[in-house]
Design the sequence.
């Protein structure tokens, strides 16, 4: 075998051929239980909640892909987040990025705070903010990088050093970057989490969550919670994620190319106020993103000069190729208005303070031709300009 192979080649050939039949596709073991030779004597599996061969293959693949020791697959990204929070106890504190996914915000503030686990939100783009905010109660530092939806970048290695010195766990939500671009465990993080619904699945046809740990003992604790609480990923959905991972590197490469072209276009459009994309040199955290990742991802966000929900609604309902929908990371381009969709549960004042303006629009750039996507956005932004002119005329006539 070759002495050195690319990550993409290693990934493809880490997906095993079925030893029983030679099937090149991982078999789907659609079963609830396994026949035992005698009580407690089996072929490695006894009940499908505890373990399933298809799910186990996915867990092994993602652990290798993220250069961790243990992978654990859950029925959704939020189920995966929930399992990590269950490592804590009443009186513990989470220090979380301020621009956080709305579902994580809801889980932390509306579910776990009633059990005595508190959360503090800080701007983690400056490591000193993390250091200053830590208290003796802080047991978990939670960052997304890039964040959802303003694409802030945090220095994983710098925050990992702070976490280690303060005896805290560092969890990085790596959903937006994917392991094709960024491997937080190699930079010092303790836990990586993915909504595998997004880039890992890649086709908008499943819901799944993955957790990967650097330390095997920590991984076994989360694996215990997976079995004890039961929020497992089904065999078929495990197979869908495996199938998606097979094309991850080539898809992400094209996502990145298209997103960069769109971000550059948006910077020149007169209706656009700010563009958020780590690949632009105008992005305040561009250098850190370039240092810790192999690319800048397929998500672009932008605000309008008319910073209103009405203006954003006009744009997101005027596109033809970009479909208005929750979620991201699929081959088809999507767009959303976080203030009315993914981040609606976050109080408006807190949402705006974290950078999620009323007019902010998030694009999940797909694999269509970049020129077609740019033309679609241009006609939608022109529709906004037309609507504005009509309103101005009506005001004058009024």
Sequence:
């Amino acid at each position: 075998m070759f002495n050195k192979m690319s990550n993409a080649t290693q990934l493809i050939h880490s997906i095993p051929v079925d030893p029983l039949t030679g099937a090149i596709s991982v078999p789907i073991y659609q079963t609830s239980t396994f026949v035992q030779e005698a009580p407690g004597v089996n072929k490695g599996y006894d009940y499908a909640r505890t373990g399933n061969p298809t799910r186990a293959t996915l867990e092994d693949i993602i652990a290798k892909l993220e250069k961790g020791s243990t992978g654990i697959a859950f029925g959704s990204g939020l189920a995966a987040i929930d399992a990590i929070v269950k490592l804590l106890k009443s009186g513990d504190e989470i220090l979380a990025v301020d621009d956080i996914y709305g579902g994580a915000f809801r889980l932390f503030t509306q579910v776990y705070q009633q059990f005595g686990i508190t959360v503090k939100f800080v701007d983690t783009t400056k490591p000193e903010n993390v250091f200053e905010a830590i208290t003796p109660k802080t047991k978990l530092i939670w960052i997304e990088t890039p964040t959802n939806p303003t694409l802030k970048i945090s220095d994983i290695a710098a925050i990992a050093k702070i976490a280690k010195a303060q005896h805290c766990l560092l969890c990085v939500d790596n959903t937006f970057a994917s392991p094709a671009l960024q491997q937080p465990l190699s930079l010092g993080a303790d836990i990586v989490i993915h909504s595998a619904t997004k880039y890992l699945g890649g086709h908008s046809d499943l819901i799944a969550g993955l957790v990967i740990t650097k330390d095997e003992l920590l991984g076994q604790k989360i694996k215990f919670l997976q079995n004890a609480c039961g929020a497992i990923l089904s065999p078929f959905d495990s197979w869908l994620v495996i199938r998606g991972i097979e094309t991850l590197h080539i898809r992400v490469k094209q996502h990145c190319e298209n997103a960069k072209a769109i971000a550059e276009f948006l910077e020149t459009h007169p209706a656009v106020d700010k563009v958020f994309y780590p690949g632009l040199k105008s992005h305040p955290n561009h250098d850190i993103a370039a240092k810790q990742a192999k690319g800048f991802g397929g998500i672009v966000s932008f605000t309008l000069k008319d910073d209103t929900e009405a203006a954003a609604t006009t744009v997101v309902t005027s596109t033809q190729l970009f479909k208005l929908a929750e979620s991201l990371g699929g081959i088809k381009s999507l767009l959303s208005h976080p203030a009315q969709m993914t981040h609606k549960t976050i109080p408006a004042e807190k949402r705006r303070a974290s950078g999620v303006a009323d007019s902010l629009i998030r694009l999940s750039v797909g694999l269509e031709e970049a020129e077609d996507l740019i033309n679609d956005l241009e006609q939608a932004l022109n529709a906004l300009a037309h609507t504005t002119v009509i309103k101005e005329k009506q005001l004058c006539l009024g």
